[in-house]
Amino acid sequence: MFCLKNARLHPKTIWHFTSYEILPKLCYRRPGVPPDNTPPWKKIDFNFSKGVQGIKKHFGLLKKEMFERFEGPQGRPMREIMLEQTRVVWEFRNQESLEQWVVSSDEAMGGKSKIYLRLSRNNQTALLYGNLCTEVPKDGETRYSGYCTLRSKQLLGAFNAKTHHDWSNFNTLYLRIRGDGRPWMINIATETYFQHQKNDMYNYFLYTRGGPYWQDVKIPFSKFFLTSHGRIQDDQHPLWLDKINTLGFTLGDKVDGPFHLEIDCIGVCNDHAHTEMFAYEKYKKNP
């Protein structure tokens, strides 16, 4: 197991932060609960009006994607994209911005943790709050509990084709947050080649100061380390910045009680003072 630079948590505790993030909430079945054998066609909502709206939506997205090939990414000239130094990816100013995110907790596996996401009183920030409970469900199989997660939704294009965030022009993740002193784990999921890599994720620690003042956090992408099923991998690779799927926040510090995290914006920037390519040792295989 390799060492984590500048990390203040023991590597064994990382499992509690990351492994729950990759649990699929919809397909998880608690021990003792019979499987859902409902035929797939019975779960389809046959609604003509929604179908027409869906066709208009997806053909509109298709038209936009086709014209962007001539205009440039996001409808901007390529020169402007190449010279871009900062980009705000998520801002929380209305209810539509919250719909780009999903929250989950150990309730999916029978736990008692609660998590909520809403706009703040002035509708200018997102407030993530709830209560963490480490009480293990008494099902005879679950051994760990106590996590809460916020994660961005996968970008989808025309006809629900998967698209990605392209952050290849930047080297640093920027967060403007206000927390309560609890440590969080930042999770970044990238596109993978093979099915067995679906649980691969890049992680780094976020330490909030607490108090009434805002905290500007800059985390270089070179500091993110690779995990799978919540376990740190010996074979490390740099983050694949042009194929970013989702970004998430996970709380699992084993401390029962309320928590809150206020988020103003999330962006990326190009810090020219940071020249490190990758912070961790990469092992070379024998020929």
Describe this structure in words.
The chain is of the alpha+beta class and 287 residues long. The chain has 4 helices and 13 strands. Strand 10 and strand 11 form a beta hairpin. The N terminus is likely disordered. Pfam families: CIA30. As part of the MCIA complex, involved in the assembly of the mitochondrial complex I.
Strand content: 25-35%
How many extended strands? 13
Gross morphology is globular
Which value, in Å, is the CA radius of gyration?
A: 20 Å
Number of helices: 4
What is the averaged pLDDT score? Answer: 84
What is the chain-wise order of helices and strands? HHHEHEEEEEEEEEEEE
Whole-Å distance between the termini?
22 Å
Low-confidence segments: 1-26
* Secondary structure category: alpha+beta
What fraction, in percent, of the residue positions are helical? 10-25%
Widest sheet: strand ordering? 2-5-12-7-8-10-11
Q: What composes the largest sheet?
A: 7 strands, antiparallel
Subcellular location: Mitochondrion
Pfam families: CIA30
Protein name: Complex I intermediate-associated protein 30, mitochondrial
InterPro entries: Galactose-bd-like_sf, NADH-UbQ_OxRdtase-assoc_prot30, NDUFAF1
Outline of the structure:
This protein is an alpha+beta fold.
List keywords for this structure.
alpha+beta, disordered N terminus, 4 helices, single chain, six-stranded antiparallel beta sheet, 287 residues, seven-stranded antiparallel beta sheet
Strand-helix topology:
Blueprint lengths: L13 H5 L29 H24 L6 H5 L3 E6 L3 H4 L2 E5 L8 E6 L6 E7 L15 E5 L19 E8 L3 E8 L9 E8 L7 E6 L4 E4 L2 E2 L11 E8 L5 E13 L18
Antiparallel strand pairs: 1-13, 2-5, 3-4, 4-13, 5-12, 6-9, 6-13, 7-8, 7-12, 8-10, 10-11
